[in-house]
Amino acid sequence: MTLERWTAVDRYVSDLLLPSDPALQAALDASAAAGLPAIQVSPPQGKLLFLIAQVQKARTILEIGTLGGYSTIWLARGLAPDGRLITLEIDPRHAAIAQANLARAGLSDVVDVRVGPARDTLRQLAQDGNEPFDLVFIDADKPGYPEYLTLVLRLVRRGSLIVADNVVRDGAVADASSTDPNVQGVRRFNAMLAAEPRVSATVLQTVGSKGYDGFAVALVTADP
Ligand code: SAH
Ligand code: DHB
Ligand code: MG
């Protein structure tokens, strides 16, 4: 089985279940034109994030890693009425592209793009002491995942859902001897999920147009 075949199936699924969407397509086009890396979630994965937000009846969503705002648009569209999304991005160029993409999607008033290192913004959010987030999507630098989980656990409640992208890394995650800092980051993250009594988690392997990777899904089962 090859990337070509996985991509063909992603296209089949998209043609079948994801009607053409001018705002999402414009976001992809503008991101590519600006030279952003094409590492956003795939369209079927984006739809999954949208559905998860709806199942969760999310009124507050936190995203770590905005890029051009492609996953942000999917998540924000899944918000309950009057819901809000905060997305964290270290690169001001990425944030500017995302702002424009979100504006085209009519989501500027719903989404707050916070520019800076996620660890700093997460600490600030904890100090601000606002209402907990119903859904968190972690998708920034992989070595940062363990720290993001620690900080995110201060920002959620029992019943919140934490989803993290790229936790399988072509299967490298099962290699305990890997020295790749990305692999080490997601391995520590997964180990923290396993050891954390306040969450119940699983990891789902995925294939598709982005290759072989996976999502972690963790339900917060106790008030942190
Ligand atoms: N969620 C996006 C893809 C995010 S790619 C989507 O699916 O559409 C990862 C992003 O995380 C990049 O834009 C990168 O600049 C950002 N990032 C990397 N390190 C970061 C950090 N320390 N804090 C915040 N954002 C970071
Ligand atoms: C890559 C993919 C991602 O989804 C991401 O968040 C970061 C990097 C990659 O394929 O390199
Ligand atoms: Mg990712």
TrEMBL record:
One of its GO terms (biological process) is methylation. Keywords: Methyltransferase, S-adenosyl-L-methionine, Transferase. InterPro entries: Cation-dep_OMT, SAM-dependent_MTases_sf, SAM_O-MeTrfase. It comes from the Bacteria. GO terms for molecular function: O-methyltransferase activity; S-adenosylmethionine-dependent methyltransferase activity. PANTHER family: CAFFEOYL-COA O-METHYLTRANSFERASE 3-RELATED, O-METHYLTRANSFERASE-RELATED. This is O-methyltransferase. The lineage of its organism: Bacteria, Candidatus Eiseniibacteriota.
